[in-house]
Write a structure and sequence with these properties.
alpha+beta
Length: about 375
């Protein structure tokens, strides 16, 4: 292959990578950032705070316009976030801590001159918008498309597992266990879980033919609310290509979407707690590259998968922004909590140092997560 062909092949592969992974990632990120910042914007306007800039992205402006209330709406060159700049926000670059003198008209629309509760509501509105967006998206999907339920298809077979020894293969569909018809993967889990050490008869559909196999789920100890129990393990995972969707009425869909969102928040917090305590490996933490990779994989799986992933990522974004790191919304809320206890805000210099430390922590976390991504690649 000549140099021209190599260059051409490399260029085609690069374009494919951009289209398959970068574009879906930026599409999802832009929507979630817009939702987050719109939460801040709407509550700020509700409390009569003048919003000077609403930006999607950072850096130089690519395109923008100014509306009738003098808010500059713009799209910036670096599409990895966004911000809402409100009139009267504390300027972290001021070392003397002195605030400029404002006229009564300016004080009326200044963020810093709003009551503590109003400022807290404005700051909280971004993460709350992400949570509400996820619930609305999930509820809509549960009503229109339905909740995905894995059928009794086999996605992967663990090596040296009971399923591998029985001859099961990825792509197989389990139709029957011991005379009981099987439809969903949860049916398979239920029977296998209660059959540790018991030989079971399986009817497998493979390539249009039905095959009879026998497998003995291996005993495995787990701890639950009742203590240590023994369950059976077959060693298979569901096939993501074999799904059915169950639709629900709007009220049920909203309830299920709220339940799923709350469950995801609990899972994330549990993972963080386990990581801090050392019971789980921090190498599982993913960064922008991993998110881009997952965005591409979800996009290739279809629009439905991409929308479900976007809802889950929205919950992650909302929760992360509530972490008590000064540069994030949660850090601002911590400052406001201290202000409520002290009866007056912290000094500008203390806040500035807090923001600098928070920025360093956030950058270190991003570097660590990106390193994990590169190691995976």
């Amino acid at each position: 292959m000549g140099l021209t062909e190599l260059v051409w092949d490399y260029g085609v592969q690069s374009l494919d990578f951009v289209w398959d992974y970068v574009v879906p990632f930026l599409f999802i990120l832009t929507i979630l950032v817009f939702v987050h910042e719109m939460g801040h914007y709407l509550v700020a306007r509700r409390n009569r705070v003048r919003v000077e800039v609403f930006s999607i992205g950072f850096g130089p402006e690519i395109y923008g316009w100014t509306d009738s209330v003098d808010t500059r709406w713009k799209i910036s060159a670096i599409p990895l976030g966004g911000y809402v700049k409100m009139f009267g926000e504390y300027d972290e670059g001021e070392d003397d801590g002195e605030q400029p003198t404002l006229s009564p008209e300016e004080e009326a629309v200044s963020f810093q001159h709003k009551r503590l509760g109003q400022r807290s509501a404005i700051v909280s509105a971004g993460p709350i918008a992400n949570f509400l967006f996820a619930i609305v998206v999930l509820a809509g999907m549960f009503s229109i498309v339905g909740i995905p339920q894995p059928l009794s298809g086999i996605g992967t077979v663990q090596e040296q597992s009971a399923a591998a020894e029985a001859g099961m293969m990825p792509g197989d569909r389990i139709m029957n266990i011991g005379g009981e018809e099987i439809t969903l993967f949860t049916d398979l889990q239920r029977i296998v879980r209660d059959s540790a050490g018991v030989t079971l008869s399986f009817v497998i559909r493979r390539g249009g033919k039905e095959i009879a196999l026998k497998a003995t789920p291996r005993p495995h100890e787990v701890e639950d609310d009742q203590g240590v129990v023994v369950i059976g393990l077959l060693g298979v995972t569901p096939d993501p290509a074999q799904l059915r969707y169950q639709r629900h009425d709007p009220l049920t869909a909203i309830w299920l979407a709220t339940e799923r969102s709350f469950g995801l928040v609990v899972e994330i917090l549990s993972y963080i707690g386990d990581m801090i305590s050392g019971t789980r490996n921090a190498e599982e933490l993913g960064g922008p590259i991993r998110i881009a990779q997952m965005s591409g994989e979800m996009a290739q799986g279809g629009l439905v998968n991409l929308i479900f992933f976007m809802a889950a990522l929205s919950i992650n974004l909302g929760l992360i922004n509530l972490f008590p790191i000064p540069v994030l919304d949660g850090g601002h809320l911590i400052f406001y909590l201290v202000e409520a206890i002290r009866g007056r805000p912290l000094g500008p210099r203390i806040q500035e140092y807090g923001f600098r430390i928070g920025l360093i922590l956030l950058l270190l976390l991003m570097v660590f997560a990106t390193w994990n991504d590169l190691v995976r690649l």
